[in-house]
Automatic annotation (TrEMBL):
EC number annotated for this UniProt entry: 2.7.4.3
Residues binding ATP: G10, A11, G12, K13, G14, T15, R123, T132, F133, E195
Annotated protein name in UniProt: Adenylate kinase
Region (NMP): 30-59
Residues given in the record as AMP binding sites: T31, R36, N57, L58, I59, G85, F86, P87, R88, Q92, R156, R167
Pathway in which this enzyme or protein is active: Purine metabolism; AMP biosynthesis via salvage pathway; AMP from ADP: step 1/1
NCBIfam families the record matches: adk, PRK00279.1-2, PRK00279.1-3, PRK14527.1
Annotated residues for binding of Zn(2+): C126, C129, C146, C149
GO MF annotation list: AMP kinase activity; ATP binding; zinc ion binding
UniProt organism field: Ructibacterium gallinarum
Keyword Phosphoprotein appears in the UniProt entry: no
Subunit structure comment from the entry: Monomer.
Length: 210
């Protein structure tokens, strides 16, 4: 299965990607995780990416396309993959089409903007393993501490309210047009993001059946 996950920032794409990875036994390739890893390591890519990400803007297409070209040619992608965060613009989608990589399906997880703002403003991320939690919806067992690895939970710099607004605006103008692009190709499937993670996963798996 070669799958693209589309959804607004904060719609729970990353969480569903993890579930789908387990279900299908294929890796999730998350652009956000790749970029944040590079920022942490202080690589050239990381330094460049940080200026865009902290402002809620997208990394330029040519750079993103190069990064994904490299990543998707690795051995672990041979039997399929789940793309979380790519493509995010029409130019990226067209570059993917022009490459030798064949995509099977594209899944959209629908969540209204108001819900997204509420979710992102309480989101916590583990500074070590990148697992996500929430101050209200997905509380860690011990406040401020990751259930998985014991790492410190932090608010991402791009989850600040002003940045969240611009990320949503960027999503609506740059990424939303991809829904029509893939629906015209007959590749789009849709599920609704719900309160319970497991309910969303059930709908997602059903949507991917046909
Ligand atoms: P979520 O945490 O819900 O996935 P998100 O999708 O906005 O929210 P990430 O996917 O983690 O966040 O991406 C973080 C930032 O990395 C984006 O705001 C953007 O600046 C940059 N980025 C990620 N993927 C791409 C891409 N395909 N093209 C350009 N920039 C990207
Ligand atoms: Mg993401």
């Amino acid at each position: 299965m070669r799958l693209i996950l589309l959804a607004a920032p904060g719609a729970g794409k990353g969480t569903q990607a993890e579930k789908l990875s387990e279900h299908f036994g294929i890796p999730t390739i998350s652009t956000g995780a790749i970029l944040r890893h590079n920022i942490q390591e202080g690589t050239e890519l990381g330094k460049l990416a940080k200026t865009y990400i902290d402002g809620g803007n997208l990394i330029p297409d040519d750079i993103m396309i190069q990064v994904m070209d490299d990543r998707l040619s690795k051995e672990d992608c041979k039997n399929g993959f789940i793309l979380d965060g790519f493509p995010r613009t029409l130019a990226q989608a067209e570059a993917l089409d022009a490459s030798s990589i064949q995509i099977d399906k594209v899944l959209n997880i629908e969540v209204p903007d108001e819900k997204i703002i509420a979710r992102l403003s309480g989101r916590l991320e583990c500074s070590q393993c990148a697992a996500t939690f929430h101050t209200e919806y997905r509380k860690p067992k011990v406040e401020g501490v990751c259930d998985n690895c014991g790492g410190k939970l932090v608010t991402r710099a791009d989850d600040k309210p002003e940045t969240v607004k611009s990320r949503l605006a960027v999503y609506h103008t740059q990424t939303e047009p991809l829904l029509k692009y893939y629906s015209d190709k007959g590749m789009l499937r849709t599920a609704h993001g719900q309160e319970e993670i497991a309910d969303t996963t059930a709908e997602v798996l059903k949507a991917l059946e046909d």
